[in-house]
Specification:
This protein is an alpha/beta fold. The protein is built from eleven helices and eight strands. Helix 2 packs across helix 3, helix 5 packs antiparallel against helix 7 and helix 6 crosses helix 8.
């Protein structure tokens, strides 16, 4: 548990080989927290895997806390963690919001990054955010109607604002209903509806906190509106950069990956057929392992993610 000021204490963990290749693993969300699923793509004999629960997420405290919780705070936390662990440079790996944070961090501290492996990149543009809450209703109209029904009819045209207000409100039942509605909508878009047990009890309380943080970030455009994430890419180090994106991703649509690849001239974009947003999809899991195994096969100073597709 690493105190980082502002009343926040981060849960920080390391796995694998202490003498291995340093790799920073960034979870999605925001607010989700790190999970064993995300680190299972790494060969623990080869990597020193650094995992953290970002501010307000997972085992970090206060869970669900919004004070002093912005993208700039998270970037400073990553700087502090690298110094605390005595790591000069590391491979930075992230998916969804984790890919967003990886790019923002690499632009802010380019000398600390050996490479970037980004899955299901999310650009945090207003169009991306509105697309999830409003625009994607055409993809799953019945599921969206059930999602929107949790809000008063006059608020259904701006669901994010209503969700953010409800998830920070005092009504426990309303918070739980809002979180469950969001969860079911996310499952529908991810193509995993019906495959998991609906959270309740402690798991539901954690879900409320997760979406409280996520709505806080999304409502503020993740503090990446000026300059935008794409504009920040001008400051990225020219290091091996691989974008993995499922062709069927409906949470972070493929157009975002194309826009990112066009902005980062040295980046490679590999499409993953059959995969959506789920990191556990066999095709996406296989693509992650192939890329990480290729990275270990190179020698220091000349590593890459394998032959271009």
């Amino acid at each position: 548990m690493l105190p980082v000021g502002d009343g926040h204490t981060l849960a920080l963990s390391e796995y694998g080989n202490a003498g291995g290749i340093p790799a920073l693993l960034l979870h999605g969300g925001p607010g989700s927290g790190s999970t064993p699923l995300l680190r299972r793509f790494f060969d623990p004999a080869c990597y020193r895997i650094v995992c953290l629960d970002q501010r307000g997420a997972g085992a970090s405290r206060p869970r669900g806390g919004l004070v002093a919780n912005t993208t700039a705070h998270l970037i400073e936390d990553l700087r502090r963690i690298r110094a605390e662990l005595g790591i000069e440079r590391w491979l930075v790996v992230g998916g969804s919001w984790g890919a967003t944070l990886a790019l923002a961090y690499a632009a802010a501290e380019p000398g600390a990054v050996d490479g970037l492996l980004l899955r299901a990149s999310f650009l945090a543009r207003r169009a991306d955010i509105d697309g999830f809450f409003q625009g994607a209703q055409a993809l799953e109209p019945d599921a969206w109607k059930r999602f929107a029904a949790v809000a008063p009819e006059q608020r259904r045209g701006a669901l994010l604002d209503w969700l953010a207000e409800t998830l920070t409100g005092a009504d426990t039942d309303a918070r739980e209903r809002a979180a469950l509605a969001w969860w079911h909508w996310e499952q529908a878009l991810a193509g995993t509806a019906g495959s998991g047990v609906e959270p309740d009890g402690a798991a539901l309380a954690a879900l409320v906190d997760r979406y409280r943080v996520q709505s806080h970030y999304l409502r503020h455009d993740c503090w990446l509106a000026a300059p935008t994430l794409l504009e920040r890419c001008e400051a990225l180090p020219r290091v091996p950069t691989l974008l993995l994106h499922g062709r069927a991703d409906r949470i972070c649509p493929p157009a975002g990956a194309l826009a990112l690849q066009q902005r980062i001239a040295h980046a490679e974009l590999r499409w993953v057929d059959g995969a959506g947003h789920d990191p556990a999809h066999p095709a996406m899991a296989g693509a992650m392992r192939v890329a990480l195994d290729a990275w270990t096969a190179g020698r220091a100073g000349a590593r890459d993610f394998g032959p271009r597709a």
